[in-house]
Every structure is written in structure tokens, then in C-alpha cells.
Amino acid sequence: MTYSQLVAFIKEQQSFLCVGLDPDITKLPKHLQGEKDAVWQFNKAIIDATAPYCVAYKPNTAFYEALGIQGWTVLFETISYIKKSYPKHFIIADAKRGDIGNTSSMYAQAFFNQMGADAITVAPYMGSDSVKPFLEFKDKFTIVLGLTSNKGADDFQLQGSPNLYSKVLEQVSLWGTKENLMFVAGATQAVMLKEIRKIIPSHFLLVPGVGAQGGSLQEVARYGMTADVGLLVNASRSILYAHNGNNFFKAAAAEAQKLQSEMALLIKA
Amino acid sequence: MTYSQLVAFIKEQQSFLCVGLDPDITKLPKHLQGEKDAVWQFNKAIIDATAPYCVAYKPNTAFYEALGIQGWTVLFETISYIKKSYPKHFIIADAKRGDIGNTSSMYAQAFFNQMGADAITVAPYMGSDSVKPFLEFKDKFTIVLGLTSNKGADDFQLQGSPNLYSKVLEQVSLWGTKENLMFVAGATQAVMLKEIRKIIPSHFLLVPGVGAQGGSLQEVARYGMTADVGLLVNASRSILYAHNGNNFFKAAAAEAQKLQSEMALLIKA
After folding, report:
1. Which pTM does this prediction carry?
2. What is the C-alpha to C-alpha distance for residues A255 and A96, in angstroms, rounded to an integer?
């Protein structure tokens, strides 16, 4: 998917919602627990229910890897289903990979070619040759960790002067363009999006931390939105586990729709 | 595996060699190329040939993920084979994972419980809650990236004063002990192991970069060795692709034996 296709779809949907597909088997609706293909059934129902309200899906690989080989199979099935049924939706493999050059090339092949994701999240610690192999794929996006939404962001990202995450944004933004590069910027520290936008005024930001992690959508839009919207705001647990019963998917749709309505107002404003 | 079991095995084998199992299908011996289970055949032959000379195996997940679902299956088969046939060998999943707390817990389950690895490599960028869930598993090791062996290490790890990698070693070493925590320290900058040992005098170091990446074994031992050896030196390409013909495994064994002989002298000295 290209940058302009993504922006056009955001305007068409009046949404910049990304639904995180993080199926925790201990939290699945009761009637699915114990079913052989519970995770796949859950994902399919969530996708079908939320597709009208979101523009992106973000499966986090950890939740699939925790299920062993079967989990990896469900991850492939899930991505394949989205591509077939909702081809305009942007698919982010939230994998947080990154290794020496020849190894990052292998990860890029895995997620872009084998799996067919549009984007992958990448950790910056190992520097340029760990990031650049991902950027070489046409019409694919590399989403580099900038400022994350967790408590541990304090340990290294916010240390130093200028702090590490600013240095990461400055340096990494030189390696790509808004056409192939995005950054993760956590919503729990939304006011910091103002500082982030001084460094990277036009790249898309993938913003986790709205919902279960406590961030505010209004603040994210206020400090982070660009003329092209420039935001993908992720919600996972607040949508996936909105209800525990047979109609979990209806509760998930309602939650996604609520966020989409807020987003439509923010896009108009 | 416990710390003392690992140290005892190193002394028994007179080796601190780790063989990196990074099967690049474009580099496999010609007679295996095109075979349905080429990677599995290759891994099994390499493992059987090198087991007398090494103490650890380190499959890098990228090379398996690049092969799609089948690759993930081969990774499981490979680890299962090592555990069954060579139960004293230490198994490192070189996965470079790391995410917010609940997600890192999923990765820990994936690699320690589902896959049965003894250790996993973890990236430190996201801080404490991304690392600590791995440390909670008994008799397992978390190997955190300190100073890596690639060119990109200059971009962030070596920046700042004190530089980032020193801060990572100082901070992360407070979260665990030598009984559950190790660090990656690249051999291409062996003299820096002297500085690293000032910060972490007793943790094991996983040292990539000997062989294809150009590091020297003597220098690594000189600056990095502890009373318990405290080193796992990895070689991948120089062993795996020592020869391209039918007897590739004999060439791999010879290369591993050569390193083991050097290591035996260094352990004695």
C-alpha cells in the first residue's frame, strides 16, 4: 500500500483507528475457550465486526508465537483473511524485530513477502543496518520505535540530553521518507507528540496506549495530527475484550464505532 | 539449565563455542537445494557434526520466519532434536524480542515454554517492563543486547557520555543476576570488552562476530574471560558454509574443532 492510498482510505472511512489483534487465550469469550480454532474464530469475528470503523489491523506476533506452531498458522490465516476480505485495510505486523543487516533482510522477507503485511514495527537499538533492509521494499512501511507507551520508556528513551528517543527520530528519519517510514509514539505521553512533531512533522505516527493503557484521543489529535491526518491510533484490549459473552463482537464493534465517531469529528476539525 | 550446569559443561567440553543455526536457503549445499526438507536435513547434519566441539546452539528466528509457516516448524523440530539428542547443550533462541510487559510475557512463554529454549536474546530499548517478564522464568536466561557487532552499533549504542550501551549494561544488570541474565557483546570491538567487564564483571557474554564478521578469539578471551569462562562465542557462517559440497558437515566439524582447540588452550591459560 502507498502513502496516498492510506491517506485516501483514512478520509473515506473517516477513521484513523487501528485494531490490535492480540488474542490472549485466557481472555477469549467463554463459549470459544477450549474450541480447537478459538483464536481464528475470535479474530475473524472481531475483524468482520470492526472493519467498517477502522483503517488498519495490527496483529502482535507475541500472542501468536505464545501458541506455538499453530499460533503462527493462525497469524498467517488472519492476515490472509484481511487481505482477501478487506483489501483496503492496512496490515501492521507488530513484531518489533531488528538485527544485523543480513538478518533484518530475512525478517523483511518474512513479514513483507511471506506474510504479506504492509508494515512491520522495528526496534532501533542496533542502528542503520538493522533498519535499512526493511526500507528497501516498495510500497511497504517500516515503523520504528520512537517513544513507547510503557513505563520502561523512562529507562532509556527519556534519558540523556537530547534524550534518546529524540536522537532516534532525528537519525532514523534521515534513512527514509514519509512514503516508507513511520514511528511509534505512545499516547500515554500525548503532550510529547508536540515535541515529536517538531522533529518529524510529516511522518505517520502509530500511537498505542489509547484505551486500556489510558491515553486520550483528543490530546493525540491535538498534538499529533497533520494535514494528511498522519496518525494511526491503536486500540487492542478495550475493543477485543469489551465483552466476554456470545456477542463479544457486537461489543467490539460498538467500541470501535465510538472511537471512529470521535475520530470523524477530529478529522473534520 | 542453570548457571553452574552451563559452566560445568563448558569445562567438560573444553569449549565455549556457540554454533549459530542460520540456514540461508541460497547458501545451502547444492545437493540439498530444492529438497523438500532441505533446511531440516542441513540443520541435523550440522548439529550432529559440531556437537562434540560446541556447548551451545543459537538458531536465529529470522532465517526460519523467512521460510513462512514451514520455517517455524523446522525451528521447533531443530530445537526438539537438540534437546533430545544433546540434552547438555545450551539452546539460545536468537529472537531479539522485547515489548510492553504483558506482551513480553507472551514472548517468554513462546520461547521458554512452547519452544523449550534455555535462553532468548532481548532488545533493551523499551526498558524494564520489556525485559523483566523474561527474567521470571526459572533456570532460563535472558540475553540482553549490550554492544552489538554491526556497523549500526555506532548510531545509538556508542553515542552519549556515558554512551548508551554502558548505561544499558549498568541499568539492566540491576534487574537480574548472573544466574538468569547475560549480555550480547560484539567481538568486532573486542578491546571494548575490557570496559564492559568493569561494569559487569561476572555475567556471561554472548559474543557474535568471530569468523565471517572478523573478530579475534584471542582478543575476546583476553578481555572478556572470567574465572567461570563467562563467554559464549558464536560462529555461524564460517561453520555452516565452510564447504558447499556433499561433505559440508565434515568441513563444518573441522571448522568447529579448530575453534574448540583454540578455546581449550585459552581455557587452560
Report:
1. 0.97
2. 27
